[in-house]
Design brief:
Elements: E1 12-15, E2 24-28, E3 34-38, E4 45-48, H1 49-66, H2 71-91, H3 104-115, H4 118-125, E5 126-129, E6 132-135, E7 141-142, H5 146-162, E8 170-178, E9 189-196, E10 199-210, H6 230-241, E11 250-254, E12 257-263, H7 273-276, H8 280-300, H9 310-317, H10 322-349
Antiparallel strand pairs: 1-4, 2-3, 5-6, 7-8, 8-9, 9-10, 10-12, 11-12
Helix pairs in contact: 1-2, 1-10, 2-8, 2-9
């Protein structure tokens, strides 16, 4: 992207750095309402806005190819995303999706998400052993060594006492190591089971994930904010770009490393395009909704810490020509990504990758 001659110049904004189809989803905000929004900010930083856009449009083409959807339909979908993105950005007003404001399949998705209860999520991740609730142990939730578990539980108890919402109301009763997301490989990610002190039937699942540097940083020459920690970067940008933040989103330090803490969502679902691939009208509607919330995230964070103003974003959206360039570049980048993946599979099968 840095050296791409086909990529037009664009305003410098806060971007997620990893915008693709699976990084949108529903979640319960700190106001207990359910929203649909961009939900992954691990790679976020200040960069040209089109870095995010072309990442997203390329993911659309790759996903449609994997689902065996005809290339003509994929091109229509890509143009739909871009036109919806431009429409919202050019108006300069952020729009947000919740059950009351959504329509069609998105409304059904959010109404279903809102109906889910915390108890069901707790039950899916826990078991009862000798009358006590404990975390499950499986391929995604691993058991900790007893010494590390004791240390983590004691340390996280201090975080609970620092949190005004939970202080003197909840206690830590179990901890485990959580495996989730390929981008988190190599980073520590812990899960804590917390129980209400005066009501053992009420519990919380809280994640503590180590924060790493954005993978885009080595390729970005623009000056960045001097964040104290990577967790501060992720949380600050997330709060700027999202309409409402997830419950308990905060930073915590453990053994000199910064972690992002948030409630493990009883509601955090993604749109499964494979279930609706035969309903092309619904696919286009969902893509338009994704374009709407992504454009809104740039408007929401506009003018913050030196990012482009809303006026600059609006002027860019109305500039002719760049959409066609994005379309052409996305086709090229999708093919390159697929070719690289085939080469990777070949090397793996031949034993060249260990």
């Amino acid at each position: 992207l840095v050296n791409a001659p086909a990529l037009p110049p664009s305003p410098v904004s806060w971007i997620t750095g990893d915008l693709h189809l699976e990084n949108f989803g529903s979640y319960r905000g700190n106001n207990q309402l359910v929203y649909f929004d961009v939900n992954d900010f691990d790679e976020s930083l200040s960069a040209p806005i089109l870095w995010d856009v072309v990442r997203m449009t390329t993911s659309i083409l790759i996903a449609f190819d994997m689902m065996k959807i005809r290339s003509r339909k994929a091109e229509i979908a890509l143009k739909k995303y871009l036109s919806a993105f431009v429409e919202v950005l050019s108006q300069g007003k952020a729009i947000y999706l919740e059950p009351e404001t959504a329509s069609g399949l998105m409304k059904q998705f959010l109404v279903t998400a809102a109906s889910k209860r915390n108890k069901a999520s707790i039950a899916a991740h826990t078991r009862t052993e000798k009358g006590k609730i404990k975390l499950n142990v499986n391929q995604k939730e691993l058991k900790l060594k007893s010494s590390l578990k004791k240390e983590l539980m004691g340390h996280f108890s201090l975080w609970l006492q620092e949190n005004t919402e939970l202080k003197n109301r909840y206690k830590v009763v179990d901890a485990g190591f959580r495996v989730a997301g390929t981008g988190s490989i190599g980073l520590d990610r812990y899960l804590f089971l917390c129980q209400k002190i005066n009501d053992r039937s009420k519990n919380l699942l809280i994640e503590m994930k180590e924060a790493g540097a954005s993978c885009l940083l080595p390729f970005q020459s623009l000056p960045q904010v001097g964040w104290n920690t990577e967790a501060q970067r992720i949380i600050t940008i997330q709060k700027m770009m999202q309409n409402v933040s997830p419950a308990l989103l905060s930073e915590h330090q453990y053994e000199g490393r910064a972690y992002v803490v948030q409630e493990m969502q009883p509601v955090k679902d993604r749109i499964n395009f494979q279930l609706i691939e035969d309903d092309f009208k619904s696919v286009l509607s969902i893509l338009a909704d994704m374009a709407m919330v992504s454009a809104s995230s740039y408007l929401e964070s506009s003018g913050r810490y030196g990012s482009a103003t809303a006026d600059a974003l609006m002027a860019f959206a109305r500039t002719p020509g760049w959409q066609e360039s994005i379309f052409t570049f996305s086709l090229m980048l999708a093919k390159k990504t697929q070719d690289d993946f085939e080469a990777f599979k070949g090397d793996y099968r031949s034993g060249n990758i260990h």
